[in-house]
Amino acid sequence: MNYKYGGLEIITLTGDITKLEVDAIVNAANSHLWMGGGVAGALKRVGGAEIEEDARKKAPKNEKGEPFVPVGEAIAST
C-alpha cells in the first residue's frame, strides 16, 4: 500500500525488514532503547551492536543519567 503525507510518499512492504533496500526504518522500541527482541532484535543482529549503542548515545537522559525516550517521542540514529 502507498500513502501520501505532505510531500512524502509512504510505501508499506511485507518481508524481512533486514533485507529491504529503504531510506529509513522506523522501529517502535522500549523507552530505554534496549534492542533485545522483535524488530529491534533483528536489526541489531544484522546491523551489529553499534546500532543500539548509537541510539542510546543520542537519547536524552533520565534523572539517573540513563538513556530514556518517553512514550510518543522519537530519536534519529544511524
Q: How would you portray this structure in words?
A:
This protein has 78 residues and is of the alpha+beta class. The protein has a domain at 30-64. It is 26% helix and 10% strand. Strands 1-2 form a two-stranded antiparallel sheet. β1 and β2 (8-11) form a beta hairpin. α1 crosses α2. The model has no long low-confidence stretch (mean pLDDT 92).
H-E string:
EEHH
Number of strands: 2
| Helical proportion, percent range | 25-40%
Mean pLDDT: 92
Strand order of the largest sheet: 1-2
Quote the beta fraction: 5-15%
Number of helices: 2
Structural class: alpha+beta
Main pleated-sheet profile: 2 strands, antiparallel
List the keywords:
2 strands; 78 residues; two-stranded antiparallel sheet
Furnish the topology, listing elements before pairings.
Blueprint lengths: L1 E4 L2 E4 L26 H10 L1 H10 L20
Antiparallel strand pairs: 1-2
Helix pairs in contact: 1-2
Task: Please summarize what this structure is.
With 78 residues, the protein is α+β, with helices and mostly antiparallel strands.
